[in-house]
TrEMBL record:
One annotated GO biological process: positive regulation of matrix metallopeptidase secretion
Entry-linked SUPFAM superfamilies: L domain-like, RNI-like, Toll/Interleukin receptor TIR domain
Pfam families: LRR_8 (PF13855), TIR (PF01582)
GO cellular component: cell surface; cytosol; Golgi apparatus; membrane raft; nucleoplasm; phagocytic vesicle membrane; Toll-like receptor 1-Toll-like receptor 2 protein complex; Toll-like receptor 2-Toll-like receptor 6 protein complex
Native source organism of the sequence: Neovison vison
Name this polypeptide is given: Toll-like receptor 2
SMART domains xrefs: LRR_BAC, LRR_TYP, LRRCT, TIR
Length: 785
């Protein structure tokens, strides 16, 4: 009984274990041969067991792990990257990472960690990336967390709600960071010099809702930070106090405001802040909102000098709530005199006032992509003396429609060398246009044009007309060095004689089916060709060319992966480099020669066989039979004109004409005989004469002799009469043996005639004159029968 209970208990335990462990095993991470393991979205409750030193990267993000134990990762001594983001981790044992001395990337973001321990990071001397964003901790702990992380380059800390405090000791030990991201959205306390311990920071991304501690942070970082990025901040209440800034010579070269809300008043305060520090070269506004009318109150404008050092201004996706009531910004024109690069994208700009354009005296680069510019407003913006040093102008994706007007409008820009007017709706192109004299680069991609004309300036060095509806390109551009013409409908490469200086050609995604060695060689200066993703016809010539040219990889930048066969169908989708066609397709001349030779031999053999087996005779008989089938089997009685048709050899004509004709036609009553020499109708086809004579004769007399058998004409007559008479099974043939002949002398093909001679009585001409009278009597009797 006890044995039965023991068995039941074991089975129950095994079943329970299989239910509990089965899903974990099924959800274990998948690893590739390089040791990169992916265990995302597997509903894992804990770190899988059995991880070994072969694991180099382990991603367990988006699971349900809540706890990390000391033994979970002890076998992963070669682990380089550990990603545990978006789990529910609320506790990590002290020595959980002690074996991870090679770890370089650790992501613990968006978990439930309330307290951080320096013991976790102490063994991680190789760590370069650490992400602790989105947890529940309020501060970075009682002791410095990162003092042992001497190789750390990227650090991300804080959270949107719970993180409220930055302390002076928090970043102790960190001397250099490429990137520091702090989510201080709910920051309530900032100890002075909390960030000053970091001696060098390339980029600080600071997320904070209110600018309460902005000036203190700025002061601490002024001597160590190169790029300050402010995110999700409402600057409505920002007020600049000059007394807060003791150091005006800072390292900060770039300011970025991302998703920041600004008013007219706070913008003025920002200008004052930038004026008090020197060295700022670039200012960027990304996704910002200006809640105002542009009524900037900047007093003592003459005293603002340092802001004039800004060389680059970038504005992307700027939202102005009261856009159509916006001022002309004339109050800040004087601040733009030294700006060299301006980018204003996706901000609904429809006009740059002429006065502002004239103030931009140092401007070299202007990008107004994705706005509302039209030719009329562009003419106002590019007025006389506007942008005098401008070299690059980008008007991509605006509302321009006329190439002719666009070119004329920009004639005032004497130094313009690069123009991008792509993604405008030009459609057509006039025959001629005017452009700035120094223009070297023109981008007309995505403009829906279907042909190119001399409107394109001949002095260009770079032309981009990709992604249009072009089916040909025949412009003469003697100075062109780079041509981008992908995504069109071209069927062949351009004529190289029109582009003598071409170095780069991008012509992928057209309808080109082939190109030859001669075409490539004609581009004597070509250094790079991108012609993949076309409809290549993998003919024998094209494949042979690609096999023989081993240097193709040096000039074809996308060879061989983007060169696929489109036809023949049997090789569609294969790489041109790997395609091989059957020998029958690539050696057609040799194949045709071989077939012709075989056919000639067959014809010769057939001729020999036909001669040997009388095939020609059978063909003649077939034709005679076809002719005879068109006539009635028997002529009506009224059409029978002769008593007998006589078939004989010309050598036997004396006997026929002087003896048989005299004996029969002068008999009383006389017999009417049909002789070919006398009665055949001149000019009528011989076959028809024979057929008609036989059909119009009551009997057919064959005068058989050695001469008859040898005579071609007699053979021919006998051929047809043999077929006609014996096929109808009648008894109209009379055989006269003029001289003794061997039966074997009669050709084998006259099988019925040979049979008749074997089975039927025939008349034999007697040499004895006393018996000749009986011969004539028997012949007359046979004719009458």
């Amino acid at each position: 009984m006890s044995r039965v209970l023991w068995t039941v208990w074991v089975l129950g335990a095994v079943t329970k274990l299989s239910k509990e462990e089965g899903p974990d095993q099924a959800s274990s991470p998948s690893c590739d041969p390089m040791g990169v393991c992916d265990g995302r979205f597997r509903s894992l409750k804990s770190i899988p067991s059995g991880l070994t030193a072969a694991v180099r990267s382990l991603d367990l993000s988006n699971n349900e792990i809540t706890y990390i134990r000391n033994r979970d990762l002890q076998g992963c001594v070669n682990l380089k990257a550990l990603k545990l983001a978006s789990n529910g981790i609320n506790a990590i044992e002290k020595d959980s990472f002690i074996s991870l001395r090679s770890l370089e990337h650790l992501d613990l973001s968006y978990n439930l960690l309330s307290n951080l321990s320096s013991s976790w990071f102490r063994p991680l001397s190789s760590l370069k990336f650490l992400n602790l964003l989105g947890n529940r901790y309020k501060s970075l702990g009682e002791t410095p967390l990162f003092s042992q992380l001497t190789n750390l380059q990227i650090l991300k800390v804080g959270s949107i709600d719970s993180f409220t405090e930055l302390q002076e000791k928090d970043f102790a030990g960190l001397t250099f960071l490429e990137e520091l991201e702090i989510d201080a959205s709910n920051l309530q306390r900032y100890e002075p010099e909390s960030l000053k311990s970091i001696q060098n920071i390339s980029h600080l991304a600071l997320r904070m809702k209110q600018p309460v501690f902005l000036l203190e942070i700025f002061v601490d970082l002024s001597r160590s930070l190169k790029h300050l990025e402010l995110r999700d901040t409402h600057l409505n209440t920002f007020h600049f106090s000059k007394a807060s800034i003791r150091e005006t010579n800072t390292l900060i070269k770039k300011w970025t405001f991302r998703n920041v809300k600004v008013t007219d008043g706070s913008f003025s305060e920002l200008v004052k802040l930038l004026n008090c520090v020197s060295g700022v070269l670039e200012v960027e506004f990304e996704g910002c909102t200006l809640d105002g009318l542009g009524d900037f109150d900047i007093s003592d404008m003459d005293k603002i000098k340092n802001i004039g050092g800004i060389e680059t201004l970038i504005v992307r996706r700027l939202a102005i709530q009261y856009f159509y009531s916006f001022y002309d910004m004339s109050s800040i024109y004087s601040l733009t005199a030294n700006v060299k690069r301006v980018t204003v994208e996706s901000s609904k700009v429809f006009l740059v006032p002429c006065l502002l354009s004239r103030h931009l005296k140092s401007l070299e680069y202007l990008d107004l992509s994705d706005n509302l510019m039209v030719e009329e407003s562009l003419g106002n913006s590019a007025c006389e003396q506007a942008w005098p040093l401008l070299q690059t102008l980008i008007l991509r994706q605006n509302r321009l429609k006329s190439l002719e007007k666009t070119g004329e409008t920009l004639l005032t820009l004497k130094n313009l060398t690069k123009l991008d007017i792509s993604k405008n709706n030009y459609v057509s192109m006039p025959e001629t246009c005017q452009w700035p004299d120094k223009l070297k680069y023109l981008n007309l991609s995505n403009t829906r044009i279907y042909s190119v004309t001399r409107c394109i300036p001949s002095m260009l060095e770079i032309l981009d007309i990709s992604n249009n509806n072009l089916d040909s390109f025949s412009l003469i551009l003697p100075q062109l060095k780079e041509l981008y013409i992908s995504r069109n409908k071209l069927k062949t490469l351009p004529d190289a004689s029109f582009l003598p200086m071409l170095h780069v050609l991008r012509i992928s995604r057209n309808t080109i089916s082939t190109f030859t060695k001669e075409q490539l060689d004609s581009f004597s200066t070509l250094e790079a060709l991108e012609a993949g993703s076309n409809n290549f016809l993998c003919s024998c010539e094209f494949l042979s060319f690609t096999w023989e040219q081993q240097s193709l990889a040096r000039i074809l930048t996308d060879w061989p992966d983007n060169y696929l066969c489109d036809s023949p169908f049997s090789v569609r989708g294969q790489r041109v480099k790997d395609t091989q066609l059957p020998a029958s397709e690539c050696h057609q001349v040799a194949l045709v020669s071989a077939v012709c030779s075989v056919l000639f031999l067959l014809i010769l053999l057939t001729g020999v066989l036909c001669h040997h087996f009388h095939g020609l005779w059978y063909l003649k008989m077939m034709w005679a039979w076809l002719q005879a089938k068109r006539k009635p089997r028997k002529a009506p009685p009224r059409d029978v004109c002769y008593d007998a048709f006589v078939s004989y050899s010309e050598h036997d004509s004396y006997w026929v004409e002087n003896m048989m004709v005299q004996e029969l036609e002068h008999f009383d009553p006389p017999f009417r005989l049909c002789l070919h020499k006398r009665d055949f109708i001149p000019g009528k086809w011989i076959i028809d004469n024979i057929i008609d004579s036989i059909e119009k004769s009551h009997k057919t007399i064959f005068v058989l002799s050695e001469n008859f058998v040898k005579s071609e004409w007699c053979k021919y007559e006998l051929d047809f009469s043999h077929f006609r008479l014996f096929d109808e099974n009648n008894d109209a043939a009379i055989l006269i043996l003029l001289e003794p002949i061997e039966k074997k002398a009669i050709p084998q093909r006259f099988c019925k005639l040979r049979k008749i001679m074997n089975t039927k009585t025939y008349l034999e001409w007697p040499t004895d004159e006393t018996q000749q009278e009986g011969f004539w009597l028997n012949l007359r009797t046979a004719i009458k029968s």
